[in-house]
Every structure is written in C-alpha cells, then in structure tokens.
Amino acid sequence: MDTERLYRENAYTAQFTAKVVRQEKTREGFEVVLDKTAFYPTGGGQPCDTGWLDGIPVIDVEEREGTVVHLLKAPLESDAVTGRIDWERRFDHMQQHAGQHVLSACFDKIAGARTVGFHLGSQFVYIDLDSIDLTREQITQAEQLANKTVFENLPIKTYTVQPAELNSLPLRKQPTVEEDIRIVEIDGFDYSPCGGTHPSHTGCIGLIKIRRWEKQKDCTRIEFVCGGRALEDYGIKNESLNRVCAMLSVRDFEAADAVERILSENKALAKAAEAMREEFCKFEAEKLVRNAPLEKGLRLIKLSYHNRPLEELRLLVSGITSEKGCIALLATTGDKNQVMAGRSEDLSIDLRKPFNEVMSQIGGRGGGSAKLVQGGLGDAESAARALDMLYSAVLNKL
Fold first, then answer.
1. Among 61, 131, 135, 357, which is disulfide-ready with 41 (CB 3.0 to 4.6 Å)?
2. Domains and CATH numbers, the chain
3. For the stretch 42-78, what's the b/e string if a residue is b when 16 or more beta carbons lie within 10 angstroms of its beta carbon?
C-alpha cells in the first residue's frame, strides 16, 4: 500500500494520529506500517526522522515500494496511535537539506558546476560537484551568494507536477520518477525535484558555511554546515582559537602568523638539534674506537643501551665502521628491543649468516646486508642474549 505522507504537505507537522495497518516482529524490533505518517524515511541523501509512536521510540524509518515502514523497540498496544517527531532532528535536517539546494544552485549559477552527489551526515553535509577546476574565488562567491539568498528570506514552495509540465520549469536537475513529481522551488531562484523536508523560507536555513573542500578523481567535494550546525561549528572553532591565542599571547587575527613563525623556528631548532646529535655520535664513535681492545687484530665493540633511539644506534654504527678494521655490535632495550651490527668496508666477513643463526635460535626477526644487519626481539633479556651470542658467533667467523 502507498502510505500517505504528511511531511510532503507540511514539513512542520510534528505530531499526528494514524491507524496501524500492519505490525510484525523482526530480529531488529517491531516493524509498523501506518495508513499515514509524518516520519520521513531515509532517502535522497537525507537520513530518516526519529521520534515516538504512543511513546515507543521509532529508531528507523524506511520506504519499501511506496510503503513507509517504522522500526520500533517495542510493540504497539493499540490500532490507533499518536506519532511525535523528534523536532530538533527534523528541523536540523530541514536546514541542511534546504541549504544544500541553495548552495548547489549557487555553484551552478557561478561556475556551471552541477551537483552529482549529496550526503547529509550527523555532523557535516557534503555535495559532490562535477568539476575539478573550481577556484577559491568561485567557492567564496558561491558561499556569499548562498548567504545572500538566506538573508533575502525567499519563500520555499513545494508542489506536484506531471511530466508534461516539466518543460515549463527551469529545473536544475531532472527527476528520477515519472509521475507525481514533487518540485521544491526557492521563489524563482531554484527549481529542483525533491522528496525531502524543507523550511518555509530561506531565512530559516540560517548561516551557510563551507568548512573545507577537496578535489577527487572527477569531482570536487564541498563540506558545509547550515543553521544550528554552523553556530555550533563556529563556537567550537572560536573556543579553540581563543585557547591558542591565550597560549601564544596574540590576537585572533595574529594567530596564523604566530603559528607559522613558531613552526619555522621549531624546524630550524630540530635541524640544529639533529646536526648536534650527529656530531655527538661521531665523537662518541671515535672515542669507542680509540678505547676498544684488539681482538684477532680487529676492534670488536659490543655495547647495550637503554631506550636509546634507533637513529642514534645507526649513527654510532656508521661512525665506528667508518674506521678500518672495526665491527660494531650494539643493542637498545626498553620500549623497543633491537640489535644492530655493522662492519668496516675493508673487512670481508658477511654478517648475515651469524646474525640469521642467532635470530632463528632466539625467535627474533630482521635482516640486512653483508655489511649491516638489524633485528627486533620480544624483550630486553632476549636482546641481551642475542648480543652475546652474536659476539661469540662473529668471533668464531674471524
């Protein structure tokens, strides 16, 4: 059966009475069909309404071949029920959906960019435009025109037409149905076939704010918010900006420049710190080589550190093996348990074989080249054992 849809005639209908046509228990809850309803079912990019039937929560609403099906948490006790819409959710959807009509029309008028996708999410709204060449200036102009249309408080009218009447209307897009086509008209500004819910005037939409945009493969996605969502979004950003300004001791219009300056200074400091670390590791490696005893004519250096960064281990191995006749066997334990080994260019020993033998016995993983190997162990004790075993294995290969 076709359910009579009260929201099509008046989107402000928040309460109604109806007769129960069918009720059926399912795994998700209780499916209820009424002879008429003000609940909007999910469709056209717009989520469904929620609310109550005789005080029982309606948790989902969908359309099935012209029938509107309500999903309830519990069964209804009467054949005649009173429905009540969650008005805050309904009005939010009305603002966002009408805002989408306005913004889509603005992009069409300013850039010839047609809307090919629409999604009304729980936080943000998206439209996909069939253009990847939109400029920042065009996007700004579209936003300005959209809000001008809001401030003009134009009437938003809905009416049904037949296919033969479509040629007399400057439709922004073609309908997806072939009869009883519902048109949403923003008083001479935009004509669009649509079955969703909208407010009576553009002023009810409130502020339309584009939050961000990104170019995708064959379109541009515009993320925006309207009305109550725009106010909430502004509040969150204003609070965050005020906190940043307080930390930086600057005014809000100075914040971006201050952050850029700090990032630049931090980048320079990080570069200087890295140079100092490299220099320190170089001196440390030279000292380790000078103090290392000779074993079989080579300087074999075995050391373990606690929570030393892997990058510093690499710098030490590199510094040690830059000298002739040196082998470095280093480990770091703690947050990470790693063993690293390297040899000088003038030596011929292939470190992979003893390293792989040790790691397979202890259950470690890793690899590398003949001159440099590295692997991870499960705990500090395993790393220490691996270092000792690798030391013995390398001595045996010399």
1. 61
2. 4-85 (2.40.30.130), 91-245 (3.30.980.10), 274-397 (3.10.310.40)
3. eeebbbbbbbbbeebebebbebeeeebbbbbeeebee
Query: What is the predicted pLDDT for the residue at 257?
Result: 95
334 neighbors 342 (Cβ within 8 angstroms): no
Asked if residue 1 has pLDDT above 80, the reply is no
Q: Please give the C-alpha separations between residue 44 and each of 4, 36, 146, 218, in angstroms, as whole numbers.
A: 18, 20, 21, 21
β-strand pairing of 15-25 with 80-85: antiparallel
Burial of 364 from C-beta contacts in 10 A (0-12 / 13-18 / 19+): buried
Query: Three-class SS of residue 361?
Result: helix
Task: Report the distance separating Cα 331 and Cα 236, nearest Å.
Answer: 47
pLDDT at site 38? 97
Burial of residue 260, with CB atoms counted within 10 A of its CB: 0-12 exposed, 13-18 middle, 19 or more buried: exposed
Side-chain-facing half-sphere of 339: CA atoms under 13 Å: 32
Average pLDDT in the 259-265 region? 95
Q: Residue range 267-279: average pLDDT?
A: 95
- Would you state the pLDDT for residue 175? 85
